[in-house]
């Protein structure tokens, strides 16, 4: 039993700008990991600018750019198209940002920017096919109705995907979540779902889709969402979710520290694990702060892009304990003990640590 | 035009414990003020301990204590009783805590701990009547299924009401919100709704209701939710919501500071106002940081316990502006410029200030 830290949090302080973002954007309460599908209202939310109010009677989705047959579709017309549903684990690219030091002033997630919903809509690929993507196309741009300023540039939130990614059959234009009409905060009337990718790609409040002959160079594409070690480093674009395992903090919490208290004797630890690169194949659990590890039992995954439940028997004695879990995926990616720092504070999938007092 | 501050936030810093609470508990994005009824998932949430998971097949509500006919009711039995709905503005007693200095380490709300939902359930008063409240009863205790430690005391979250308050006809045992089954985070399967009172009174995940012959002295009743000016001051209990007006921040935001940018020319400012003491009778708006005030136009209130929409025409010139609004209720309570400090960081209804750059 090794307890390296008296305190489950660090000692860094946070600015009022960061607090205002944390108060506004919603984290996933970790006890919610017990549900296969995250109940509406508990999924994480990162609202980059404001939630736009969309009057659907005047709304149409324009699909244009480098295509032979541009189309403009109402929500009813989109709903008349083939309908499909998919369960998808979603995570913000900035999850874990507050655990980097130094960190940029942005949404200071600790580890709660996750969720796992069932999205329903119509596949994107047949729509691109019908619009007639012309030779020379390289990317597809997705533009939202949310606008604001960042880096002194006013812009709508928009992100592109390489053409091959945009044509993947599992990409969805979603108009429902968990069987309900999309609520405003999840992108009403229509959002993009890109299973396996971090959240910034899943553009909400879609206004238009445009096929491009040159790579998109907008603010949210080039200035954001790259893992750079310095301002001079070109870095790598943030794309798919790296593996992560999260545990339901066992027992009961205290307030305000949220340290955990557990009764001595047998109990079951459980959690969920996911990766955007390949299905999770292994979850390991340590009950001594990472000195020794054991394999957890894995349930079947929830589809190809949903998370995978795991469980592990624990029979603790009274005292202080530090619980850790880590995931490995079928592509050979594992959660590292420590993630390489980057300027944007992205993709920090260092393992969650849960400090427990057993009584 | 007076701008007293370059910055809409203060310069204080926040601890990691406070950040963890802010990341976990959900604030109301202020642009959501446009909706009469707050869409599910956008209402504020303060989850004191963990969200309990309730298997409704084994759940019953016990009504006992100093009554002649104790009862135990399943959810189906509760749903067979008279059904009513009420729109209620809810606000956390700690709203505005982060704007006090010094402040206790607790949920560091800025001003976003609000919401306005429609709750459906069965009135409490007839149930108390049927249980037969006996002579000598003084209070009714509401106990939730959520447990934790605070002040080194392990306890279920529970709060009492004076008998007269508990017998008010508008108190509800709610099993639906906005026409849907209560989701876990709002208190499934049953929560108390006490229209007009701050959120700590609206006990979620109800386990039992007990009629008492002595005032309840539990931790959440005596150690919390009193406005004290020092540890020696007995203070006043926190009960009904003091008046507050909130404005939809106009224009578009920047990221990460969320300062507002508005185009020059006529626009409409709008917001909502409420009070738990009496209906709001007046909202004033200042576009010069509080130097001069004008009356806003008021829409009809949403029932007796819902908020009241207001609007005000504004025709700004380019430059920096500071917008403020304040509410007055029919009982003569107004929002003060500054609220008297208290040790718990409660009931800070000092006016919201919105800093705007007009271009």
Descriptors for this entry?
34% strand, Sulfite Oxidase, Chain A, domain 2, 9% helix, mainly beta, 6-stranded mixed beta sheet, 5-stranded mixed beta sheet, Immunoglobulin-like
SSE order and pairing:
The structure is a homodimer.
Chain A: H1 16-24, E1 61-65, E2 71-73, H2 75-79, E3 84-91, E4 114-123, H3 124-131, E5 139-150, E6 153-162, H4 163-166, E7 172-177, E8 180-181, E9 191-193, E10 206-212, H5 219-223, E11 226-227, E12 236-237, E13 244-247, E14 252-253, E15 260-262, E16 267-274, E17 280-286, E18 294-295, E19 297-298, E20 308-314, E21 319-329, E22 353-358
Parallel strand pairs in A: 1-10, 15-22
Antiparallel strand pairs in A: 1-2, 3-4, 4-7, 5-6, 5-10, 7-8, 7-9, 11-12, 13-16, 14-15, 16-20, 17-18, 17-21, 19-20, 21-22
Main beta sheet of chain A: strand number and arrangement?
Answer: 6 strands, mixed
CATH architecture of the largest domain in chain A: Alpha-Beta Complex
What sort of overall outline of chain A do the alpha carbons produce when their principal axes are compared?
globular
**Could you say what the CATH topology of the largest domain in chain A is called?**
Sulfite Oxidase, Chain A, domain 2
- Work out the radius of gyration of chain A: 21 Å
User: What's the tally of helices of chain A?
Assistant: 5
What structural category do the secondary elements of chain A indicate? mainly beta
What is the strand arrangement across the widest sheet of chain A? 14-15-22-21-17-18
According to DSSP, the number of beta strands of chain A is: 22
**Quaternary:** homodimer
**Can you write the helix and strand succession of chain A as a string?**
HEEHEEHEEHEEEEHEEEEEEEEEEEE
Overall number of structural domains of chain A: 2
According to CATH, what is the class of the largest domain in chain A?
A: Alpha Beta
The end-to-end span of chain A amounts to 15 Å
Percent in helix of chain A? under 10%
Of all chain pairs, the largest interface belongs to:
A-B, 61 and 61 residues
CATH 4th-level superfamily of the largest domain in chain A? Oxidoreductase, molybdopterin-binding domain
User: Averaged pLDDT of chain A, please?
Assistant: 95
């Amino acid at each position: 039993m090794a307890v390296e830290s008296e305190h489950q949090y660090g000692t860094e302080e946070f600015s009022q700008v960061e607090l205002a973002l944390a108060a506004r954007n919603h984290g996933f309460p970790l006890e919610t990991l017990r549900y296969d599908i995250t109940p509406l209202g508990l999924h994480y939310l990162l609202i980059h600018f404001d939630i736009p109010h969309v009057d659907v009677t005047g709304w149409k989705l324009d699909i244009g750019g480098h295509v032979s047959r541009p189309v403009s579709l109402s929500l009813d017309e989109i709903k008349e198209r083939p309908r499909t549903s998919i369960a998808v684990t979603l995570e913000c690219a900035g999850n874990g940002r507050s655990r980097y030091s130094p960190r940029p002033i942005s949404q200071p997630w600790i580890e709660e920017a996750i969720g796992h919903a069932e999205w329903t809509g119509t596949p994107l690929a047949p729509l691109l096919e019908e619009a007639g993507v012309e030779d020379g196309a390289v990317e597809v741009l997705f533009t939202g109705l949310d606008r604001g300023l960042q880096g002194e540039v006013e812009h709508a939130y928009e992100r592109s995907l390489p053409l091959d990614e945009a044509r993947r059959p599992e990409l969805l234009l979603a108009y429902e979540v968990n069987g309900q009409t999309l609520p405003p905060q999840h992108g009403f009337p229509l959002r993009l779902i890109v299973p396996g990718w971090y959240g910034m790609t899943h553009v909400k409040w879609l206004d238009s889709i445009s096929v491009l002959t040159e790579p998109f160079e907008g603010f949210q594409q080039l200035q954001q969402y790259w893992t750079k070690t310095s301002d001079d480093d070109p870095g790598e674009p943030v794309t798919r979710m790296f593996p992560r395992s999260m545990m339901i903090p066992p027992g009961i919490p205290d307030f305000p520290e949220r340290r955990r208290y557990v009764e001595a004797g047998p109990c079951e630890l459980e959690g969920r694990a996911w990766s955007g690169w390949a299905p999770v194949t292994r979850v390991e659990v340590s009950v001594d702060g990472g000195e020794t590890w054991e394999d957890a039992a894995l349930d079947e995954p929830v589809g190809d892009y949903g998370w995978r439940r795991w469980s592990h028997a624990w029979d603790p004695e009274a005292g202080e304990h530090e619980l850790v879990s880590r995931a490995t995926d079928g592509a050979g990616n594992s959660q590292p003990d420590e993630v390489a720092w980057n300027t944007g504070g992205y993709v920090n999938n260092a393992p969650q640590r849960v400090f427990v007092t057993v009584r």
